[in-house]
Amino acid sequence: MGSSIDWARCGLGTGTLASLGRALPLAGVRRLLDTMLELGMPTIDTADSYGSGDCECLLAKAMAGRREQFNLVTKAGYRHGNLGGPLRPLNQFIKKGLQRMGKHRCFESSYLERCIHHSLKRLKTDRVEAFLLHDPPLDVIQSGSVEALFAKIKKQGSALHTGISSGDPEVLAAALERGLCDVIQSPAGLSAAGALGGVWALCESRSIHVIGNHVFEPSLLNDPSLTHERLMKASASLLPKSATILCGTGNPNHFRSTLAWIMDPMPREEAWRLAAGHR
Ligand SMILES: NC(=O)c1ccc[n+]([C@@H]2O[C@H](COP(=O)([O-])OP(=O)(O)OC[C@H]3O[C@@H](n4cnc5c(N)ncnc54)[C@H](OP(=O)(O)O)[C@@H]3O)[C@@H](O)[C@H]2O)c1
Fold first, then answer.
1. What is the predicted pLDDT for the residue at 2?
2. pLDDT per residue over 25-50, tens digit each?
3. Global confidence as pTM
4. How high is the pLDDT of residue 138?
5. How far is the CA of 124 from the centre of ligand 1 (A)?
6. DSSP 230-253
7. 22 CA → ligand 1 middle, Å
8. What is the domain count for the chain?
9. CATH number at residue 32
10. CA torsion 14→150→178→8, rounded to 10°?
11. Res 260: pLDDT
């Protein structure tokens, strides 16, 4: 079960760390990881598709010599280019092309197995703490193929834990029903809480670890009464007490302040009132 790892309360979200035109220099990523370790927050969330593999490569460089101090969560299911060497920059354009053609997702077991092996290579490690399917559709969960895939990946030792990342309560509920998850990842912002509160409660009762993302919803931040601080304090109150909430940042001070907000959640009734007003 997910509880055998100390995931800690705040994790690093790396969705934009190596994005086209927005990549953080290696020295900046090292500083970010230094801050996480100083704060005792070792969890990093990534995916093979973030920067079409560049994000995992960047993390490997920044973790060099200290990989064992981090918990790595990676995901697969979005297709992207996999060119190496000097052709690497083309991968991000291939991903955009696949998106445009509507061929950007694949959840065939043989493909996903290859994905985790590519991720381990890029991350320069022999296992990740968790491997998640990245936004799978319901029919994939219901197909019965994911059970065998996850069992194989765990038997090989490529991932200690497996699970699903999704914002769809139906997908998450079906995955929980089938016993597929040690870990789930879901949106954790105010507008997600109404639909996902039941899933989080079920996870808590079964010791399934919850990772929350997308707390700083840009549409809510347009409301002058909703600051980053209030949004994070509300989510920290609504999610299970052991949940890890991701902070998508390249700025160590933003990671630091986010953690301080998580550790000082708002009263639960106030958080539910806010969530009820933003469904
Ligand atoms: N389908 C999925 O599995 C999925 C979907 C969405 C997200 N995710 C994961 O979740 C992570 C986070 O989600 P998200 O990308 O939606 O990002 P987020 O963490 O909700 O928001 C990121 C934004 O908030 C700003 N920010 C962070 N901390 C701040 C602070 N203390 N004060 C002020 N601004 C702050 C960041 O700016 P700065 O850069 O200036 O700090 C950035 O603009 C992603 O990186 C990814 O790892 C997964």
1. 45
2. 999 999 999 999 999 999 999 999 99
3. 0.96
4. 98
5. 25
6. HHHHHHHHHS-TT-EEEEE-S-HH
7. 14
8. 1
9. 3.20.20.100
10. -40
11. 98
